[in-house]
Amino acid sequence: MFKKLLVILLLITQVVCAQKSAVQQLRYQLAKERDSIVYTDVLNELSMKWHLTNADSCFWYAVQARDVANRLNYRKGIADALNNLSIAYALKANIKQAIEYEGKALVYYKQLEDNSNICQVTMNMSIFHSLAGMNETGEQYLYQAMDMGKKLVYDSIYSLVLINYAIRFNPDSTKRDSVQWAIRQAKKIASHYPGCSRDLYYIHAFEADNLFRKGDRAKAVAWINSLATQAQKDELIYVAIDILRHIETYCNQGYQLDVIPYKEKIYTLGKIAGYTDLMLPQVVSIYRYYAKVHNAAKMAEYGHELWLLTDRQEVMKDSRHVNYLDYFLKEQELNEWHLSNKVQKEKLARANTQRLARRKLIAFLAGLLMILGGFTFSRYRSYRYLRHQEELLANMNAEISDKNRQLQVQDDFKNKLISVVAHDFREPLQNIIRVSAMFRNGDADPVLRQKLIRETEHSSRKTLEIFDNILRWIKSQLSGFVYAPAPCDLKEMFSGVVADIPEGLQVAGDQEMLQFVHRSLLQGAATLGKDVRVVAEQEADRVKVMVISSPTVLTAQQATNLFAYEDAVYSVQGEGEELAMRFIICKDFMDKMGGQIWANVAGEQLQLIYALPSFS
Question: What contacts 463, CB < 8 A, 6 or more positions away?
Fold first, then answer.
């Protein structure tokens, strides 16, 4: 533990030595600087660095910077000077003036869109409002600073915002996890900025608090003392004071040690750095202690200090400041009143006993009511859960019914497909039987025999073609099928058909699928109308092909359902189920090729249309 502490302090010392060197360097730069803008920036940097060591020096440099910036109308310099003045007034316990200056600085930074300094000033406003007793407003400013700091991520000011968050909520045990998170994040950010010596002191002080909570109380106190001593050596007086306040917290949490020497040391450090006006609570506490132990010499010493401080406070007194002397005197009067009314308290004891009994009864009834409420809530949750399960079951049943309906439709389609195939196979087989019978008997007319052979060949070829198309369609339904589009020249594919097709117009598709679609559309157009012709045109990145016939026997409603899975057969009823099956397969092929297919009836004209991506 000692080795770890020694390493930490050595690291901090190295950083602060660098900070001291930076102050000396700024002083040297200030002496020889000729550029007024840079001169103002150096003054503000010095003022900011001095606020941790000497409030008067912080104030003096800030006043000088503000005067120069006002003459130059240098808004960034004015904003920085107002910020430093605000900090100086806060160190002098003039919180009202600090808030006013910080508010003006915030306006300037918002005009400049300086997000880092907006975050820093908002954080300061949270501290000042909390010091003024406006805790709710202070918390609002702190949360605003946290939100802005998250967007800065690795900006060093976010580290300080996180530390202030930890300081504000460290006493709250319900926020212990968020406080630990804030310290870890601050440590991570500080590692990117070796100059954040103040942040390192606060981070290690919180680590000492963790040791205290884990039971290593003596080590925690030793660590705090070492950090405070090192901070004092490095002239970070304000940091040393903040760190020493952890000892008082440990005492309040039950650790047995004499806290008065630490309070006296805090007061001494405050006087050295010019933070005297902030030391009033320490002086009041010390005075009370010596009054309690009847140490007349110390009472006289700190009574005089108390008088000096309260006299200064009276000058700055306003509605937002606490007059600590009046508070102290009134507290003494309250103690005397407490002693004089001790007898009355004894008289009230019996009434308090009765009141306690009533409270117990009320507590019992309230507990019973809570149990009933919990039981009711549990029943209500069970009811809601059952309703939810019923809804899920109903949805699942609906999905199952829908899938069953789809399976039924598909089953009907396959049955019809089998029926079509059987019908198409019947004709060539019958012809073959007839031809075989004629050859067996040998008494057929040669002309009739040749006619039957030609019919048998024609019907067999047609059936074979249908069978090949069905096999192609079945193959496209299998899971292993991979569609690979290729260029298809429409002019060549519609050769021998009356067609208005531009030369070289190509679509991206499967040659065999597309040939089946063309044959089916031409057959359908010829079956459902007359005077068949083909028109193709380029539309943006796709090609639209129309097979047109007129007049047609279909209505507009029938044409709309021509390629619908369930309604195709009914749309061409009377024209053959084979054509309906072809249209359904056409629709499926178009879906595979990423195209669309539909039908329109315009007047007496039937338009069978498909659209596919252009191959270019």
Answer: 424, 425, 427, 428
Beta bridge partners of 486: 509
State yes or no: cis peptide before 502, omega within 30 of 0. no
Kindly report whether the global pTM for this prediction surpasses the value 0.85: no
Specify the 3-state DSSP secondary structure of 598: strand
The phi, psi pair for 193, rounded to 5°, reads: -130, 90
Which of 116-125, 239-248, 255-264, 332-341 ranks highest by mean pLDDT? 116-125
Q: Residues with Cβ < 8 Å from 424, sequence gap 6 or more? A: 462, 463, 466, 467, 578
Our CA dihedral for 156, 182, 232, 288, rounded to 10 degrees, sits at 140
Helix axis angle for 280-292 and 260-273, nearest 10°, is: 150
Per-residue HEC secondary structure of 377-442 comes to HHHHHHHHHHHHHHHHHHHHHHHHHHHHHHHHHHHHHHHHHHHHHHHHHHHHHHHHHHHHHHHHHC
Q: What is the dihedral of CA 349, 354, 355, 360, to 10 degrees?
A: 130
- Arithmetic mean of pLDDT, 219-236: 83
The runs of H, that is alpha helices, within 442-482 are 446-477
321 burial level (CB within 10 Å; 0-12, 13-18, 19+): middle
Q: Strands 533-539 and 486-489, how do they pair?
A: unpaired
d(Cα 359, Cα 22) in Å, to the nearest integer? Answer: 65
Give the total residue count for the chain. Answer: 616
Question: Contact, 430 vs 459, CB < 8 A?
Answer: no
Which tens digit of pLDDT belongs to each residue from 129-156? 988 889 889 889 988 988 888 887 667 7
Structural tokens at position 608:
């069978």
Calculate the average pLDDT of the chain: 77
Q: What is the DSSP string of 204-226?
A: HHHHHHHHHHHT-HHHHHHHHHH
Question: What is the CA 605 to chain-centroid distance, rounded?
Answer: 58
**Percent of the chain that is helix, strand, coil (3-state, to 5):** 75, 5, 15
Residues 513, 593: Cα–Cα separation, whole Å: 9
Sign of the CA dihedral with 82 first, then 86, 91, and 96 last: positive
**Cα 341–Cα 346–Cα 347 angle in degrees, nearest 5:** 95
Compute the distance between CA of residue 176 and CA of residue 178 in angstroms, rounded to an integer. Answer: 6
Write the single-letter amino acid at 591: D
Measured distance CA(306)–CA(537) in Å, rounded: 99
Q: Is 387 exposed, middle or buried (0-12, 13-18, 19+ CB in 10 A)?
A: exposed
Q: Do the bridges between strand 596-602 and strand 542-549 make them parallel or antiparallel, or are there none, so unpaired?
A: unpaired
| Residue 130 CA: distances (Å) to CA of 23, 77, 95, 124, 141 | 31, 27, 10, 10, 10
Helix, coil or strand: residue 196: coil
Per DSSP, helices labelled H in 276-341 are: 280-292, 296-316, 324-340
What is the three-class DSSP state of 611? strand
Spatial CB neighbours of 37, under 8 Å, sequence gap ≥ 6? 72, 74, 77
**Residue 170: how many CA atoms within 13 Å on its side-chain side?**
23
